[in-house]
Amino acid sequence: MRIVLVGPPGAGKGTQAAFLAKNLSIPHISTGDLFRANISKQTELGKLAKSYMDRGELVPDEVTIAMAKDRMEQPDAENGFLLDGFPRNVSQAEALDEMLKSEGMKLDAVLDLEVPEEEVVKRIAGRRICRNDSSHVFHVSYKAPKKEGVCDVCGGELYQRDDDSEETVRKRLEVYHTQTEPIIDYYKAQGLVVTISALGKVEDVTARSMEALQRGE
Fold first, then answer.
1. Is 123 a catalytic site residue?
2. Is the peptide bond before 87 cis (omega within 30 degrees of 0)?
3. Phi, psi of 139 (to 5 degrees)
4. Is 127 a catalytic residue?
5. pLDDT of residue 58
């Protein structure tokens, strides 16, 4: 299967992508991972992307598209893939369609993870990270530490990252609504969109997604 995963920040795309890719036996292709891999391997595309990032500029669509194309041409993606974070806007979606068409392929589904805006703000703004070890993550509502502000694991100080503040989250949502949400309508016109509620337990969301994909809704 060839699937695109979309949804606002805080919808749990990364978590769902990992589960779905494993269940479907296809690679999870994340834009973040692509950038990190290309930059660390110092590929030409990686160097190009880094030059924009170092200047605080957005990486142009053509660089992102070239990275995605290169990854989708790897042998492990021959029988399908799950794209997470790409396409991010309509022009990238059009480029992906052209790319697949030239290879005689097409997308099977676009999985839209739906979460109410206030839930997104609550999920992200409630996160607290340990200063000693960033893998120790807590949440004021869903996974509160035994002692406020103190990591249960190592006793380190818990803090809220700048990009997790409510103001930043709302700005990120604004960018999502403006740039990424239009791709949902673009794919709806092709009859590819499967909308899933991303509320509830992780495994329940995965089960709903798998069921909908198998039904071909």
1. no
2. yes
3. -145, 135
4. yes
5. 83
